[in-house]
Amino acid sequence: AQTVTQSQPEMSVQEAETVTLSCTYDTSENNYYLFWYKQPPSRQMILVIRQEAYKQQNATENRFSVNFQKAAKSFSLKISDSQLGDTAMYFCASNTGNQFYFGTGTSLTVIP
Amino acid sequence: DAGVTQSPTHLIKTRGQQVTLRCSPKSGHDTVSWYQQALGQGPQFIFQYYEEEERQRGNFPDRFSGHQFPNYSSELNVNALLLGDSALYLCASSFWGPWPLMMVDTQYFGPGTRLTVL
Prior knowledge:
The complex is a heterodimer.
Chain A: E1 3-5, E2 10-14, E3 19-21, E4 24-26, E5 33-39, E6 46-52, E7 60-61, E8 64-69, E9 74-79, E10 88-96, E11 99-102, E12 106-111
Parallel strand pairs in A: 2-12
Antiparallel strand pairs in A: 1-4, 3-9, 5-6, 5-10, 7-8, 8-9, 10-11, 10-12
Chain B: E1 5-7, E2 10-13, E3 19-24, E4 31-37, E5 44-50, E6 53-57, E7 64-68, E8 74-78, E9 87-94, E10 108-109, E11 113-117
Parallel strand pairs in B: 2-11
Antiparallel strand pairs in B: 1-3, 3-8, 4-5, 4-9, 5-6, 7-8, 9-10, 9-11
């Protein structure tokens, strides 16, 4: 089975600053996707960013970008210009075949 | 475009009872997955339905069963409820990818159903 590890249970960042959330995963597959999801206190899980494993170029979505290191099986999320609305639980997930595996999450607090 | 919807929002049951949770996928999606999320934890995969069949199953007992209807909506049934079944139940929908990948791409989640077992 795959595993996804998020080693930072909690993080905080000053508003307008940059923060990086770490994620490592373990898979023997060649074809897979990687995701970061955000879950605010309202609990709706929202897709932040998606990366296809066969693409070497790192995905970017506005203030969110990833550092995908396939050989190291590392997939970190960088949030630039942090905003108060970024306060949430962030989950890293991998998808091999038809099953998603989630990490335990990182609780991010943006401080005004 | 309606996203993934789930009902009910909250549910309170007692041990031994049975519960049914419902999910309507995002428009254009044909695959539904169910997850259990305990407080402070990441979602745990229960099972996935495509073409009205269970395609994948996580490490959950047979008390957890499901169904997918021709309109792609889905139900999650839990029998003989235990206190440990108290959790947020999330439904996620996606589109079954084409050959040769034949894998699910991005999943979009509903707001969840909070189940409390007393």
